[in-house]
Amino acid sequence: MSFLKLENLSKHYGDFRAVDNISLTVEQGEFVSLLGPSGCGKTTTLQMIAGFVEASAGRILLNGRDITHEKPNRRGLGIVFQSYALFPHMTVADNVRFGLDMRNVAAADSSARVAQALALVRLDKLGQRYPRELSGGQRQRVALARALVIEPPILLLDEPMSNLDAKLREEMQVELRDIQRKVGTTTIMVTHDQSEALSMSDRVVVMEAGRAIQIGKPLDTYENPVNLFVSQFVGKANLLEAQIAWQRPGKAGLRIGQHELEVDCDSELIGPLVTLCIRPEKIERCAAHEGLLSGEVASSFFLGNQWLYRIHTDCGDILAIWKNDGQAACQPGQKIFLRWPVAAARVLACSTQVEHV
C-alpha cells in the first residue's frame, strides 16, 4: 500500500479548474517534485495535501487514512514555505521549538530534539541568534529544522529555494537532498525550476493547466518526453516537424525537408505529421561524409563548461551544446556537419494524457 495517495484530486473555482483530476501514489521515504510553470496547479495541489485548501473532489489518503477533510493541525505534516515564515522576535532555537510547544512536548525532550534538529542542518552553534542575523541559506535551514523537528510523516516544500542566489541555490539542493536521505522523510516539493526537480527527485510530476502530464523518474522524463510541452519545459529541445515516410516494427522513416531520417519507434505513428525531438547535447559535429545535416553557425554562447550554438540548417535552426574542451570555438558563418544517434531522437505524441514512466 502506498504511503500517500491522491485519488482523482481536483480543485475548482467556479468554472476554472486549478487542479484537474490528479492521481498520484508516493512511497514512504520517496522524494517527489511537482514541476510546472506558474498557474499550472502545483502549489494548489500541495496546499490541498497540507489542508490549507479544501479539495473540490477526490481523496487524499495518508498511510491508508483518509485525511481529505482533516484540519491542517491534525495532519501533522512538516511544511517549509517559500518565505520561510520564521518568527523574527524568536531566536533560532525558539523558532525550531515552536512546533513542539504547540504539541505540549516535555521541556527535556523538546530541548534534546531541538539540539538534534539544529545539528542536522549544521546550525547547532547559532541557536541564540535571530533570523535577521542569518544569511538566506541559514534561514532556509532553520525553516527546514522547524519542519523536521516534529518528526512529520511527510515534508512539504513550497519553492524552498526561490529566494536564494544561483550559487547558494545549487549548494542547498545538494544539502537538502542529503538531509532528506539521512532522515528518510517522505518529501513533496513544488518547483518551477526543472534542474532543481531533476537533480533532487526520485520522481517528477510534470504539470500543465491543472493536470499531471507525465510522471516518472527524472532521467526517463528528460529522455522520453511524452509531448511538446514536456520536451520544452524540461530542458532545451530541437523540435523538427516531419512527415512519416515509412514504418516497420520498432523503426520509422521521417522526411524533414529534403532529408529522410530513421528513428526508433515502439508504437505505430498516427497522422501524416509528427514532431521529432532531439536534445541539444545529443547533436554531434562530424565530417561531411558522416553528416545527417549540414549547417552554418549563426551564434554562440559561452556557458563556462560548455558552448551553446545556434546553427542554421535547411530543416530550421538547430541548437547544439558541446563541451568546452579548451579548443577554439566555432565561429559565426562557419559551415559544419551534424549528426546524432538514432536512439537520441524521440517522436512526440500530441496527446496530453498522463503517462507514468
Descriptive account of the structure:
This protein has 357 residues and is α+β, with helices and mostly antiparallel strands. It folds into three domains: 4-225, Rossmann fold (3-Layer(aba) Sandwich); 226-273 and 341-357, no CATH class; 284-339, OB fold (Dihydrolipoamide Acetyltransferase, E2P) (Beta Barrel). Helix content is 25%, strand content 37%. The chain contains nine helices and 21 strands. It has helices spanning 42-50, 72-75, 92-102, 107-120, 136-148, 166-183, 194-200, 218-223, 228-233; strands at residues 4-13, 16-26, 31-35, 57-62, 65-66, 78-80, 154-158, 186-191, 203-208, 211-216, 238-248, 250-256, 259-265, 273-278, 284-286, 293-302, 306-313, 316-323, 335-339, 345-348, 355-356. It has a seven-stranded mixed beta sheet with strand order 6-7-8-3-9-10-21, sandwiched between helices. A five-stranded antiparallel beta sheet has the order 13-12-11-14-20, with no helix packed on it. A five-stranded antiparallel beta sheet has the order 15-19-16-17-18, with no helix packed on it. A hairpin with a 2-residue loop joins β9 (203-208) and β10. α3 crosses α4, α3 runs parallel beside α5 and α4 (107-120) packs across α5 (136-148). The protein is globular. The two termini are 19 Å apart.
Bulk shape: globular
What portion of the residues fall into strands of 2 or more residues?
35-45%
CATH fold category name of the largest domain: Rossmann fold
Please report the number of helical segments.
Answer: 9
**Secondary-structure arrangement, i.e. CATH architecture of the largest domain:** 3-Layer(aba) Sandwich
The portion of residues assigned to helices is 10-25%
